[in-house]
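Hi C.,

You asked whether I'd gotten around to modeling the 384-residue construct. I have! Everything is below, sequence then structure, no commentary in between.
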Amino acid sequence: MLGSIFILLDETDVRLLMQVWSARTGQKQTAGTETPGPHDMLRTMVTSGYSSTGDLGLLQLEKDMMAAGISLPAVVRDIPGIPKELHYVKTTKAFVGPTGGEMEISSFAKLVVPPEILQQETAVSISIADIPGILRGEEGFSWLSDYPWSLGEDAYPRELLDHVLFSPAVDVNLHGAQPDGPMELQTWRPPGSEGMECVLLKHFDGEGWADITASTTHQIHSDKLSISMHTFCPLCVVWTTLVDVGKLMTSVLSSRTLDCRFSAYIKSHEEDVDFHVVCRDKGVEKEEYRPGFEVCGSNKAMFDLYHRNDIEVAVSVQNGQKESKKIELRAQLCCEEDGQNVQMFLERPNGRHLKGDVIIKSTHERPPRTVCEFKFREVRASKR
């Protein structure tokens, strides 16, 4: 399994992962040696006990890859035999009441709710967001290929990535409840981050990403970071020696975050229709679509989506067929005038006007989370 994962990493990924591994284990590479290839890396990690501990070894690999900014779900998605839980973001849900309590995703994040912060039994969810997956480019598995210092001759060199590490990016959801005071959010601190500055980047619904480091109470411990928070949105934690990394990360994260509207369009024929479900970012104000297509239903997404999120579009025709298709969202496509589309070919039951339901779900979460739903209705049907 480890061999199947390592063979998909490029030289930069291997080098960054080796740095994290060396910082954690204390085993240093010999100065002047070349970056090991995937097979050399595998042998080194096997001899160090990395893979001999079964599930614990795989968990440690996931943490090391996260610290290096490499998306494990992106790497393993097409590898046969990989446990399904590695394909999806980690999440947990529990009910917490007035007496307070704790909940955690073991080894990654913990939420501590003091007594009397919540006035009634409240559903609380914690997810580990796949920030490297959001930021990765068309080719690579890590976030570095689309980072600002790789985009032009005057950009920063990729070697500066040696000065950046990640703690788990966390999303806490109180499902509408309003706490009466702060809660403590703890995240794992990556090895090798000693002497680095901690940068907290938070996503505010409708406003985008912002650097909240200076305005947020937090404590840095040897193995974890504790953050005091009243409100919760996706939070990305970066460790760095770079002065402007907060601005750079905020810019890139903003370009990869989508506040979407989904619209259905129909092009009518005598016996059937071309049916397209289109995803557009909020910055696209255009309502028209391709020639011959008319809008037949629309609704806004219930929450923000991200570049490379996997979604499933399910269409159910009243008294007729059901169709579903899965796609991977691309931020650039969603920000274009015609948006990113899912195309289907639907039969018209008994030659009548077509109507039914569209349900879009985010499938990179387990269970899949409903993103948007709406009804559609064909305004004009072809005459028989």
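If it helps when you're writing up: The first helix runs from residue 2 to 6.

Thanks,
B.
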